[in-house]
C-alpha cells in the first residue's frame, strides 16, 4: 500500500463523509475509472484495426463469393 495525501473538492468530500472506509472507496473508484479508460483505448485500437483491414476483407469476401457461387449458376 502507498499512502497519499490528496485534495478533493468540498462537495465530493461531503459526499463521502459517511463512508466508513474512504481509502478503499477511493481506490475502487480510481480502479473503475482506469479500467474504463483502458477499455476505451482498446475499443479505439480495434476500430482502427478494423478500418485498416476493411478493404482487404472485402476483397477476400468477393473472392470467396465467386468460388461459393460457382456451382449455383
UniProtKB/TrEMBL annotation:
Biological process terms in GO annotation: regulation of DNA-templated transcription
Protein name: CopG family transcriptional regulator
Species lineage: Bacteria, Pseudomonadati, Atribacterota, Candidatus Phoenicimicrobiia, Candidatus Pheonicimicrobiales
Amino acid at each position: 500500500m502507498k499512502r497519499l495525501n490528496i485534495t478533493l473538492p468540498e462537495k465530493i468530500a461531503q459526499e463521502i463523509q459517511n463512508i466508513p472506509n474512504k481509502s478503499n472507496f477511493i481506490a475502487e473508484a480510481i480502479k473503475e475509472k482506469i479500467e474504463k479508460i483502458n477499455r476505451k483505448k482498446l475499443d479505439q485500437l480495434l476500430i482502427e484495426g478494423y478500418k485498416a483491414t476493411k478493404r482487404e476483407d472485402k476483397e477476400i469476401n468477393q473472392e470467396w463469393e465467386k468460388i461459393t457461387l460457382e456451382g449455383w449458376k
